[in-house]
Each structure stands twice: as C-alpha cells, then as structure tokens.
Specification:
This protein is mostly helical and 303 residues long. The longest helix is centred in the middle third of the chain and has 27 residues. One of its GO terms (molecular function) is diacylglycerol cholinephosphotransferase activity.
C-alpha cells in the first residue's frame, strides 16, 4: 500500500511539473530558465534555453557595466608601492608613457617644414651616401632593383602557394584586405615623388610605371608572409624573409622609392591585415574545410 501511495505521489508530481512547464511555455519562459537565472545571474554566457515545444528562447543580456565602480575609483587605491610595482612588472608600458610625454614636448616645439622646402625624412638623411653611390652607378641600381623584384615574386609565390597548394587562405585573405586599403590611401593622399628618386625599369612594378608611395606594399606583403611562416613553425624561412625585408627597406630608402613613413606603416599594415584575416577565418571559415598545414599531417593551426 505504501508503495502504491509513493508511485501515485510521484506521478502526481510529474503531472504538476508538466503543467508548470506548459504554463512557462505559454508565458514565454523556457523550462528551467528560472533556476538558471537564480543560480547564475547574468546568464548571457550560457546557451539559450529550449522549451518543451522545441522553440529556442532568448537569453537575458547582462546589464551594462557602470561607469562608476561600486568600490570607488581605481586611482583612490593607488599607493607609492603600487606605482613602483607597476614600473617593475610593466616596464614597457611605462617606457611608452615616458615617450608620450617626451614627444608631446617635441611636437609642440619642433619647427615646421617651410612650404617651399622638400619633406624632411630622417631615413633619407641616413641613406644619403647610398643614394649618391646608386646615382653614380646606374647598373648597380638596376641589379638591386631586379633583386628586389625577385623578392616581391617570392612573397607572391609563397602567399599563393599557401592557398592553392596547402589550402590555407589566411595569407591570401590578408593580402586581399591590405592591397585595396593601400589603393584607397594612395589615392586619398598622393605624396610628391621624393627628390633624388632613382627609378629603374627592373623595379617592381616593372617598366617605370606610376605607383602609390603610401604605403609600401613591398614591406606589407613580406610581413604577411613572415607572420604565416611563424604560425606554421617555419622559423628559418621567416627570419630569412625578415632579413630580406630589412635590406629591401634600406634599398628603397637609398633609391628614394619610398619615404620612411611608407615603410613603417607598411609593417603595421601587414600586421593589421593578418589579424583581420584571422578574425575573418574565425567567423566564416568552416571547420570541415580545414586541412593540415604541412605534409606531416600534424594538427597545428591551419590559419
């Protein structure tokens, strides 16, 4: 008799629970949502709950972070020991903070370049002897330009190889992001050709055609290739590309093919394009199309 009463009580509880769940569904609240909300405040990090009818219910978004923390402003708790500890454990940001103050002083006191004067470029000043040597030896300038074109072809070959042969699109996507941005910026601000420019028909683009000064696609493409080499543990190739990229930069400054700022922004553009390509892969690239990054079939990153 006791067993029968226990079974009937259990059945009654099940009926009551189903009735309550049906009521929650009718009210638009997923089954078990009240328990999750009560035990896990800020349930946006959890997957959306699913009702008995199979309809996925919306999650509750957490409130925005307050501008004024409840514990008070951060600087109120700073001490001399805390500042010393920050300098000891975070020297790089602290050094950049000092440089910020230094260059604020430089910016507000540096003489502006007169309108009739050519742009001041420290890279041109440093490479003045090389510029004079190349101007006195046109054949040497042509040879170096041809070697630079070979390096550009190496970049292009590697980036296309990773996509067409290895099936890894990230370097190609990065290049596709970078070059149109370079074209937009190059059209937006067309800098004058540097004084003392030493052109060559063997330089890329071959044939003494016009080109964008800002920013350097030569440098950005080499950075994209080098980053991919490091990602796939081809460290020796990456170091070789970095060394060739440095020599390329010196040669471009010596031939007045780019301003220093063109080369510096080219490095940053390569990094930014690679990061954007990686984010694109995370969002769009399907896991079932990923392949091993090398012939050994290992499971390293395919980005």
């Amino acid at each position: 008799m006791t067993t029968e009463n226990g079974v009937s009580d259990t059945a009654r509880l099940r009926v009551q629970r189903r009735t309550a769940d049906a009521a929650r569904v009718a009210l638009g609240v997923g089954v078990g949502a009240s328990h999750e909300i009560s035990h896990h405040h800020g349930g946006a990090d959890r997957a959306p709950t699913k009702s008995l009818s199979g309809v996925r219910m919306a999650t509750i978004s957490p409130p925005p972070m307050p501008l004024f923390p409840s514990r008070g402003p951060f600087f109120a708790g700073l001490s001399v020991g805390g500042v010393v500890g920050a300098v000891r454990h975070h020297p790089v940001p602290c050094a950049f903070a000092i440089l910020l103050l230094v260059f604020m002083g430089v910016e507000y006191t540096i003489p502006m370049v007169p309108l009739a004067s050519p742009p001041l470029d420290l890279g041109f000043i440093v490479t003045e002897p090389l510029n004079a040597a190349l101007a006195a030896a046109p054949a040497l300038n042509t040879v170096l330009a041809a070697l630079n074109t070979v390096f550009v072809c190496m970049q292009t070959f590697y980036i296309l190889w990773t996509f067409l042969v290895e099936g890894r699109p990230r370097p190609t996507i990065a290049a596709l992001f970078m070059f149109p941005c370079r074209g937009i910026l190059g059209c937006s601000t067309q800098l004058p050709l540097p004084e003392g420019f030493l052109g060559s028909g063997a330089d890329f683009p071959v044939g003494n055609v016009s080109f964008f000064l800002f920013f350097s696609g030569h440098v950005a493409g080499a950075v994209i290739a080098s980053l991919d080499m490091r990602r796939t543990r081809r460290h020796n190739m990456a170091w070789a590309f970095d060394a060739l990229n440095l020599l390329q930069s010196v040669r471009l400054l010596a031939a007045r093919g780019h301003y220093t700022i063109d080369l510096a922004v080219g490095v940053g553009a390569g990094f930014v394009a690679d990061v954007l390509a990686g984010e694109y892969e995370k969002i769009k690239w399907k896991p079932d199309r990923q392949r091993a990054c090398c012939s050994c079939g290992c499971s390293c990153s395919t980005g």
